[in-house]
Structures are given as C-alpha cells and as structure tokens.
C-alpha cells in the first residue's frame, strides 16, 4: 500500500441536468494488483463512478473532481487520448454478457478486433492471440469457439469472452461492473476464481462493482460502500466484516444470508433510498438509520479516517464521536 | 491450418445466409410481384438496343399517328417517330435519373444521418434544416430548385436529391440513435475502438434494413417526380425523350391518339408500382416488427 496508487479518484461528483446528482465527492484509490470492491444498492452511484473512470458517460453528464490514472488526470484528456487509454490500460466488463457482444459477428471477429485496435498485427497472429486469450479464461476448445456466434454460447461462456476481450491488451486496471449478476451461482464462483487468478498472474488491479456482499468477502482486498451517491464507508475486507462502522454497512451485512450459524429471518433496512432529486437534510442515511440522533439531521458527516485502514461517514463512529459531540 | 478451418466455413456461412434470404423474400408475394414488375422494366431498358434499332428521333411524316400495330408496336407520334423506340430510350433516362438520386441519397443520407445521429454535434442544426426542407411539398421544392438551376438532366438529379436526402438522413439517424445505445456498441467503445470502426462495423449493420427499404421508395418517388419535372420541361431537353416528356408531347392529341400518353403513363405506373411493392415486401421481410397487423 506504500506505492503510488494506480487509480486515484478525488472528490468525484457527477450530475445530470443539474438537479440530479448521481455521485457526490467520492474519493478512493486503487493500487496496482489490488482488488477493490464497490458495494451499494441499485442507484447508489456505483456504475456511474465506473463509467466516469472509463470516460463513457454521456456528454450531458457534468463531472467535477479528478480521476488520476498513473498520474494523469483522465478528466483533462482529449477524446483521442482517452480512446487510446480505453481497452489498452483500462478494461471493462459489463453487467450483461447477453447483450454486450455484437450478435452479427463471430466471437473470433470480436476478440481479434479488440486485439488489433491497440496492437496492429496480421489477422492470423490476432487469431492465434484470441485462441490464447480464450484458453486463459478457461474456455474449452477455444479454436472452435472462435467461429461461434454469441447466441451459440451460454451466459458463463459469453462473460468469459467479455473478460478475454477486456484482457486482450493486458490492461493495468480492469473494471468489472456486476460481472456475475446475470449468471448462476456455480458460474459466479468460477468467474470470481478466474478474476482472482488473473490478478495473481498479471498483477491486474481490479475494481469490482457489485451489490453482493458474499462476492465481496470472496475476493476483495478493500471495500468501498456507497449509499445514495456518497461513499459512507471504506475499509479492508476484514475490518468491514468484523467492525462495520457505518450503520448502513451493518445493515447490509445483516441482510446477507449466512451458511453457518442458526437460520434466522434476514434483517432488512427499513425504508427505501431517498429520491435523488429531493434528498433529506443532514446525513442521507438518517431517515432509515436505527441509531439516528437529532444531530444527524444537522449535517452530512464527512468521510473521516477511524484507523489507518478504515474510514466512515457517521458522526457516531468511534473516533468521530468526540468531534461530533463537541 | 487456421485458414483451412476458417475460410471455407465463412464462405458457406455467407451462402447459407444468402439462401435463407432468397427463400424468405420469394415467399413474400408483394416482394415477388414488385421484383417481377420492376425487374421486367429494367430488363427491357437494358435490352433496348436489341429490341429496336430505330432512332427515337427519326421522323417519318408519312407514318404520323399510326396506332399500335405489328409494324409499330407502340404506334407513332405526331411526327411519325416510333413510340417503342422512344419509350424504351426514355426509360434509360427516367431510370438513370432515379438511380442517380438513389446513389446520392445513400451516400449523403448515410453521411448526414451518421453525423447527426452518432456525433450529435450538429444534430439540432441538421434536423431543423431537414424539417425546413421537408415542410415543402416534395414536387414543389423540386420544381423550384430545377427552375432556379435551369433545365437539364443533372439539374433534375440535384433537385430530387435535395428533396429526398433529408428523409433518408432522418431514417438513418433514427436507427443510429437506437443502435448507439446498444450494450455491445458501448462495449466496443470501452474496448477503445475508433468512432469510424464503431459506426461502420457495429452500428451500420443495424441501419441497413430501414435504409434499403427507404431507398427503394426513394427510387419510386424519384422516377415519379422526374416525370413531373420533365413534363413541365424542367428536366432533360425534349430531344432526349424521358417518360414525362412523352406524356407532355402526347397530351395535345389525347383524344385522337391516346396511346401517345397511355403507354409512357403505363411505363411510369408499372415502375412505381413495382418499386413500391418491392419496398413493402422488403420491409416486411427485413423488419418483421414493422409489419402491419392484418
């Protein structure tokens, strides 16, 4: 953790149409070879943050703050420079393997296309490289698969193809936007193993976006928890599971089924996420928070460190209590 | 090895898909009838030199106003010119102008539609200009442009292209707007593909079906509007007998020699009907969702 971060996001704020803000003042780092998870409910700003890093937000989005990748601020790069970076240094795997492949081209066409975009080579060499990539992501009989069309493959295989495409130029950072949601559980486990394997083999840093705490526990080094456009807690995976500091994190953990221990009704977090167009005053989570006190309604607590490896945005978190009570 | 495995399968795949389309298209009655009508007209037009070698402008005053007979299949006009030769030669001009308009539509329609639909920069400006052009009745606008530029075949082509390109550009833009939001287009962008490649490789295949259908209708309208322009003397000069010119010349003798107007009129009607049926059939086959409930 001493090395300079590969990706450093500072005060990222993304808004649409001035009234709707999808991400507020998000700051987090991803170090080389690290797997950082981003969890949160649908609409908490996870995917928008990922798209902002890729520079794939629609032009109507207003983005402020900074996104430094290897020291360069992505927000100041030209379209052209950004395009060169995409795919080569930063790869992304989308949520829907079913629709992320072009139905009218074969798998081989699509992988070789990705290969040749950043690394001009002959068709034949690209074809060989594609075979190699498919092998690496664990697709059986890769040479035959290259001639298949996407509809001939299962969801798990298609997601592997997507990963192969994302890996085609050995990116330093791989963004995986809920890569396992559309897949069944055994395939999920295989894919998570695969991501872990790739990280060990190539030192690829991975930003994994999910709403599945179980997936997080499996693979993440560090976790960023987002709620209603804000980061509410950031911690190593062990600290997060052992000592969640933000009541929202506790709530998320409480609503995850466990295999060992007694079966009990899953606890839920009362209420729903606030409408992003009319946010409550003070702490955004206060209306749903079981521990809320009147002071919570006065201000949005900033994300402050509790220990070197953990920060939370709650006035009740230990270490912040003193400041909050002052 | 790779080549051995891949190339034949690609070829056979292409053949398979060609066979598939031929089968589906020939099962469509509207397409079949349209293809026969329009194909027949095209065939006669191309084979004109084989059918008759008579100069379409050769006068023969003794044979004025001969009704259709074995000697003069389509009869003769007020100056004794052979109508068969004139109609067949006129077809070349009429269809040629129609075809040129279609080509211009394909090129500029796709180009402008892509700029507006994909880059979105000039979207508002381009589409407002298109709106303005489309607000005029098509024929009136074509007449205006042709009159301003002076009568010639090139003028007719330019005028008709200006009239129909906005419509084509709109169709292309609409399909690009849909296609550019597809997940795999986003995925291609995330992989760092160039705009040109995304447009050509991933987006355009989605626009082909509506574009082809649109172009078949543009062809029909262009032939029809060209007839109007040449009837009014705003297209090629009378020495080159396009169908509209033939009707204009024949209308004076409508009572006495109806064949002078009826035959070129039928030629126009068959061409336009054929193209419309063809376009309808294409639309039903290429885009089943558009099919009107029966």
Mean pLDDT of chain A: 85
What is the 3D form of chain B? globular
CATH architecture of chain B: Orthogonal Bundle
* Cα end-to-end separation of chain B: 52 Å
What's the overall average pLDDT of chain B, rounded? 87
Helix content of chain A: 25-40%
What does the largest sheet of chain A look like? 8 strands, mixed
Give me the strand/helix succession of chain B. Answer: HHHHHHHHHHH
User: What is the string of helix and strand elements of chain A?
Assistant: EEEHEEHEHHHHEHEHEEHHEEH
Query: What's the domain count of chain B?
Result: 1
Biggest interface: A-B, 34 and 22 residues
Dominant shape of chain A: globular
Biggest sheet, spatial arrangement of strands of chain A: 6-7-8-3-9-10-12-11
Proportion of beta-strand residues of chain A? 15-25%
What descriptive keywords fit this protein?
heterodimer; A: 326 residues; alpha/beta; eight-stranded mixed beta sheet; four-stranded antiparallel beta sheet; 11 helices; globular; disordered C terminus; B: 294 residues; mainly alpha; MetI-like fold; 74% helix; disordered N terminus
Quickly describe the structure.
The complex is a heterodimer of chains A (326) and B (294). With 326 residues, chain A is an alpha/beta fold.
Helices and strands, with pairings:
The complex is a heterodimer of chains A (326) and B (294).
Chain A: E1 7-16, E2 20-30, E3 35-39, H1 46-54, E4 61-69, E5 72-73, H2 79-85, E6 90-93, H3 107-118, H4 123-136, H5 142-145, H6 155-167, E7 173-177, H7 185-202, E8 205-210, H8 213-219, E9 222-227, E10 230-236, H9 237-242, H10 247-254, E11 304-307, E12 310-312, H11 321-325
Parallel strand pairs in A: 3-8, 3-9, 6-7, 7-8
Antiparallel strand pairs in A: 1-2, 1-4, 4-5, 9-10, 10-12, 11-12
Chain B: H1 2-26, H2 29-46, H3 48-51, H4 83-119, H5 123-135, H6 138-149, H7 153-179, H8 183-190, H9 195-231, H10 243-250, H11 259-286
